[in-house]
Specification:
The protein is an all-alpha fold. The protein has 12 helices and 2 strands, in the order ααααββαααααααα. It has a two-stranded antiparallel sheet.
Length: 290
């Protein structure tokens, strides 16, 4: 049981990191806390399902189409809504949460409820590791999750767009003086964040079914990881993912699976009570600001 907890705890941690990377990227660059993030995740899942089962597209094209549509939706949300209220934090939160709520409830209204809404796994079968069976889809998620993290690091350090992202995140006024358009960079960051949510959905949803409620769970988990790790900190996301991931797995193994979401909520409350900026957050604590 211990080995199984260790293996599946590691897998769960990678899944949490994948879920939170897009939310963290968007906030770190544009300063927008995208509360429509869980809705983008579910939108990508249902989008891929519709393209695959209704339009009968090949799975690869359905995945590509879903990723593109989700990124376009994220960009449109920023250009049409968030650009008008940029800098008004409460308004941004309300607007993104309202948009996310509308997307999810539209799917519910249209009847996208039931166990038939699922995506096929990429690789069928399982592998035995020390007497513990792990399906290939989860191993694929772990491998691709590491690749995505490495790609994001290389992208933000060695590409023109990535360097523009970092410039806006570190010092917006200086970046503006160098000719970097902050509004378009913010648009791209929201689109990239939505794309990462879609990619996480395509990888993770084959493990279960697509449901409207899953969007709310994804948002809570992404918030928990980012708040505990520190909003805008990639290292914080990785560390918090493993802390919460293993805590959830231990809770599921030795208590009951329905307590898993409580772990994320308790983590949020605990870190806000004792270290509001998160483990690796750059925001100053209250006593440092006075």
């Amino acid at each position: 049981m211990l080995l199984g907890t260790l293996i599946y705890g590691f897998i769960n941690s990678v899944i949490l990191a994948l879920v939170a990377l897009g939310f963290n990227l968007t906030f770190g660059i544009s300063g927008v806390a995208n509360f429509a993030y869980g809705a983008f995740y579910i939108f990508a899942g249902y989008g891929a399902w519709i393209l695959l089962n209704t339009l009968k597209l090949p799975y690869a094209l359905a995945i590509l189409g879903s990723l593109i549509l989700t990124m376009v939706l994220g960009a449109l949300m920023y250009r049409l809504v968030l650009l008008r209220i940029r800098g008004l934090v409460i308004s941004e939160v309300i607007a993104t949460f309202g948009i996310g709520l509308a997307i999810l409830e539209i799917f519910r209204y249209l009847g996208f409820i039931g166990f038939e809404y699922n995506l096929p796994v990429f690789i069928d079968g399982s592998l035995e590791i020390g007497g513990v069976f792990v399906d290939y889809q989860r191993l694929f998620i772990v491998g691709l999750g590491c690749v995505i993290a490495l790609f994001l690091w290389l992208f933000t350090h060695y590409t023109k767009i990535g360097l523009a992202f970092r410039g806006i995140a570190q010092e917006e006024r200086t970046a503006l003086s160098l000719g970097i358009n902050s509004d378009w960079v913010a648009t791209l960051s929201v689109a990239f964040g939505a794309g990462l949510a879609a990619l996480a959905a395509i990888l993770i949803l084959p493990l279960g079914t697509i449901s409207v409620e899953g969007g709310y769970d994804v948002l809570i988990n992404a918030l928990a990881v980012c708040i505990v790790g520190g909003l805008g900190s990639t290292l914080g996301v990785v560390v918090a993912s493993f802390l919460i991931g293993y805590a959830q797995m231990i809770t599921s193994t030795y208590l009951e699976p329905h307590w898993i979401m409580i772990v994320s909520l308790v983590a949020i409350l605990a870190i806000l009570a004792f270290k509001p900026s998160g483990l690796f957050g750059s925001q100053k604590e209250l006593e440092e600001r006075i």
